[in-house]
Amino acid sequence: MSHHSIDRIRSAIKASLPSARIVLVGSYYYNEQTADSDYDLLVLSNFPVKRSKKQAIVARLERAGIKYDLHFIPKLFIFLKWKYVAGKDLDSGKDIRLELTRRVRSAVLASRIKMAYYYYLGEEYNKSIIALLKVRIMPNAVTDIDIFSFTGNLRLLEQLRSEFSEEEYLLYKEALVKRADVQGKATDTEQLLGMINEMFLRSKGDLFQLQHNLQYYAYSIRRGSFKVLVNYNKAITSALYHYMNDNPEESTRQLSKLTKVTHLEDQLKEYSCLSMFEMKN
Question: Which of 92, 142, 225, 232 yields a CA-CA distance of 20 to 30 A from 166?
C-alpha cells in the first residue's frame, strides 16, 4: 500500500470525521492482495455516523479513484468487546489486534453463516464456500490470521483435513486457491446450499447474541420501525434460510419482525450488508 493511497484515504475520511480512527484490514493488511483487491477499511467513530457523512466520505473516495470496502463501527462496540478488530491504524502505523473472546467467536460464526447465504444469493459461490469454511475452522482458530487471511485458512484446512470428506476438502481448497475475489461457480450448487443449511440448523440456537443487535436497532429506527425485543441477527439469517429453500412466505414473516417488507430480495441483501464482518477475504 503506497503512502499516496494512505494519504488519500485519510483525507477523504478525516474531512468528515476528524477524530475517527481508520484501520486497514483484509488482504492489504495481511499482504495477500491481488490486482483486483480493494482496501478494506474500518472507521472507528465516537458516535454512530450520520448517513450524510458516510455519503460524503464515499463520494470523496470514489473521486480519488480508491477501490474500497468501508465499514463504520462506534468505538463503544470495541470497548464492550462486541466487535473484533485486527488491522493497522493509518494514523500511527501500529498494529491493532484485540482478543478473540467467546462473544467475538459467536459473532464471527453468526456472521459467516449469514454471509454464506448472502453470497449464494448473489451467485458468488467461491465467497460462499469460504464463508462456510470459516464456520468449520472457527473452533480451532487461535489468532485473527486463522480466520481472516487466506494463509491462515489454508493452514487450518490442511491441519484439519481428517475432519473433512475428500469431496468437501477439495471444494474448500479450490475456492481458496481461486481466492474469494474471483467469480466462480461451485461444481454443485445444491450441495453447497445443503452444507450451508446443515451448518445453520446445527448452530442457530447458539450463535445469536442480543448484544450484537444495536446496529440493527439503529437501522430500524431509520426505517421507522423500532422493535427492541426482536433478535435481529437471527431473524435475518432465518429469513435468508427460508428464502433459499423456496419458502418466501416464511422469509417475509421473519423480516416483517424487523421492518415492513417491500422488495424481499433487495431487503435481504441490504440487511446482510449490515453485518460486522463483511471483509472480502
Answer: 142
Distance CA 240, CA 116 (A): 10
Name every residue whose Cβ is closer than 8 Å to that of residue 280 and which is 6 or more positions away in sequence: 26, 27, 37, 38, 40, 69, 127, 180, 181
3-97: CATH topology = Beta Polymerase; domain 2 (3.30.460)
Instruction: Give the span between the Cα atoms of 21 and 46, in whole angstroms.
Output: 9
- The CA distances from residue 201 to 45, 184, 197, in Å, are 35, 26, 6
Q: Provide the grid cell at 39.
A: 482496501
Least confident of 83-97, 163-177, 233-247, 256-270: 256-270
* pTM for this prediction: 0.77
Cβ–Cβ under 8 Å, residues 270 and 279: no
Asked if pLDDT for residue 65 goes beyond 80, the answer is yes
Q: Tell me the C-alpha distance between 143 and 154, whole Å.
A: 14
Q: What is the mean pLDDT of residues 131-135?
A: 92
- Pair 24, 40: CB distance under 8 Å: yes
